[in-house]
Design goal:
GO terms for molecular function: ornithine decarboxylase activity. The protein contains ten helices and 18 strands. It is of the alpha/beta class and about 375 residues long. It has two domains: about 230 residues, Alanine racemase (TIM Barrel); about 120 residues, Beta Barrel (Lyase, Ornithine Decarboxylase, Chain A, domain 1). Strands 1, 12, 13, 14, 15, 16, 17 and 18 form an eight-stranded mixed β-sheet that branches. Strands 4-3-2-11-10-8-6-5 form an eight-stranded parallel β-sheet. Strands 7-9 form a two-stranded antiparallel sheet. Strand 10, helix 9 and strand 11 form a beta-alpha-beta unit. The relative contact order is 0.16.
Length: about 375
Amino acid sequence: MTDRIRDYFKALPHEEPTLVIDLDVVRQNYLGFARALPDSRIFYAVKANPAPEILSLLASLGSCFDTASLQEIRMAQAAGASAERISFGNTIKRESDIARAYQLGVRLFAFDSDAELEKLARQAPGAKVFCRILCDGEGAEWPLSRKFGCEPRMAERLMLRAAELGLDPYGVSFHVGSQQANTMAWDAALATVGQIFRRLERLGVNLRMVNLGGGFPTRYTRDVPNAERYGFAIRDALSRHFGNRLPETIIEPGRGMVGNAGMIRSEILLISRKSDAETQRWIYLDIGKFGGLAETMDEAIRYPIETPCDGAETEGAILAGPTCDSADVLYEKRPYALPVSLEIGDLLLIGATGAYTSTYSSVAFNGFQPLRTVCI
């Protein structure tokens, strides 16, 4: 939460919820990852925040891009990234999109199943492919352990099949879970990947790349390790499980690249209670789950909030959004401690909202416009 963002908000009246991104912070985050893992290529996860200004900045710094759709590929190219700096990292792709991506020059594709591999063989002949394996995600706020990936033994079979189909069996990927606070989470996954490399080598397939995925966290209400600590732990694990034959590596930071670069300003629309005897306050904001704060689902992400009454007496409040949907409640299981003196019309600053807010914002649900984003 930077002074530049606060100054921007002070200069303008509040008309709607607005996300402001400080590009200087994005730059610092990129350079931090580059220093922490100097031998890894950085593929920014476009889905975290695809603002053109962010993509252009990262492209100018030399970043590569992890994309999940044909549209994200086009965004990365429009920002100045050449095709060899783009990975089509979604394991669930429309076959015609694979064909179009290949026509655009993309040659790096993810998969985790027989059917997806066959699509790639038909539409992206000779392309580099990497197979995603399952990872338990223990220690992450958002484990990604079921929808994506396959068992390691299946991955070995698939990579053998990739070679038979004329594709280039390039490597293996995994994801340790989003907002992963455990720097050692990569160790067990790399142990498994090392075994896959050695078994396939004995069968005549020489893998060269490990995609270390994302998972690098941003600071919300609790401290998290910095990029340097993750880099040290990952480099140590690579050395332990690959010895002197280190593979190429790539990382896919998203949240860790842009999360702490953004702040949303929101207005209190209503403060109420549910009965005359009720002591629990409900505070309704002009932004909620459908306006971009979808990661409050199950209260997994707890955003830091600044108020004009900070320092005064506080009590827990249930926070909710403005839509006519009963699911649009942000914090109810653990009410949020906010000043008792808050009033309707007060403006709040919701920090660390640079990632997965503008992209999760709905398109005019209840007539509310998508989250406005400004980059400074």
